[in-house]
Amino acid sequence: MNIIASKQDVQVGEEIVLLCKAGGEGTITWQKDEEDIDDEEKVSGIDESSSKLSIKKATMNDAGKYSCLCDFDSGHQDKIDIQLYIYEGPSFGSQKTYHEFLEGTNGMVPCLVTGKPEVDVHWLRGNQNIPSDEGERVRQLTDNTLRIEKVRREDAGLYECQAYIRGRTINQKLPVSVVVNAPPKVRLREEVKKVMAGSENNVSLLCLVDGLPKPNITWTM
């Protein structure tokens, strides 16, 4: 016997179609979690050795173990099982994907995910997983928020929040951009310490400025 399924991971609202093929003629019945399925709208015989189970729009309640049983005309009985997983999401909604932080402050980047049955979240930067260990300057909190303690300039860049349906490979990814701003810092440096006053003398002052984004510089007297 054999059960043919288009997929084992089915999204809520999708159609489920299971085809059971027996190795000979007989009477075929279907069960879900050891309970007989008597709904004629779901079960239809194709011929003496095959039967189809179809569900138009899957719900979370349709998850479970499906069994095809055959009482062969020869008197032999056989059974085969398949496990179906129903999921919804993961979905990030319309949350922000761009965050700006001031250098030296603590940055918090939320990752709000919904999904069923359960969703696991992982933060990555590049191909590296961000840890959740206490004491790490950049870490994932228990509520899936990314915490960047005392933000540095090198923390700027692209991060990724990955959400997985627990125990399955179903996932969604949300790219998040982090921008770091630094307030301008100005130092004046004169090239000559003492200059005698006079119309023929030149005085040069060097203005050294640091900041992110690059500051605009103006001189006033």
Automatic annotation (TrEMBL):
<protein>
    <recommendedName>
        <fullName>Ig-like domain-containing protein</fullName>
    </recommendedName>
</protein>
<dbReference type="InterPro" id="IPR013783">
    <property type="entry name" value="Ig-like_fold"/>
</dbReference>
<dbReference type="InterPro" id="IPR013098">
    <property type="entry name" value="Ig_I-set"/>
</dbReference>
<dbReference type="InterPro" id="IPR003598">
    <property type="entry name" value="Ig_sub2"/>
</dbReference>
<dbReference type="GO" id="GO:0016020">
    <property type="term" value="C:membrane"/>
</dbReference>
<feature type="domain" description="Ig-like">
    <location>
        <begin position="184"/>
        <end position="221"/>
    </location>
</feature>
<keyword id="KW-0677">Repeat</keyword>
<feature type="domain" description="Ig-like">
    <location>
        <begin position="90"/>
        <end position="171"/>
    </location>
</feature>
<dbReference type="Pfam" id="PF13927">
    <property type="entry name" value="Ig_3"/>
</dbReference>
<dbReference type="InterPro" id="IPR007110">
    <property type="entry name" value="Ig-like_dom"/>
</dbReference>
<dbReference type="InterPro" id="IPR003599">
    <property type="entry name" value="Ig_sub"/>
</dbReference>
<keyword id="KW-1015">Disulfide bond</keyword>
<feature type="domain" description="Ig-like">
    <location>
        <begin position="1"/>
        <end position="68"/>
    </location>
</feature>
<dbReference type="InterPro" id="IPR036179">
    <property type="entry name" value="Ig-like_dom_sf"/>
</dbReference>
<dbReference type="Pfam" id="PF07679">
    <property type="entry name" value="I-set"/>
</dbReference>
<dbReference type="GO" id="GO:0098609">
    <property type="term" value="P:cell-cell adhesion"/>
</dbReference>
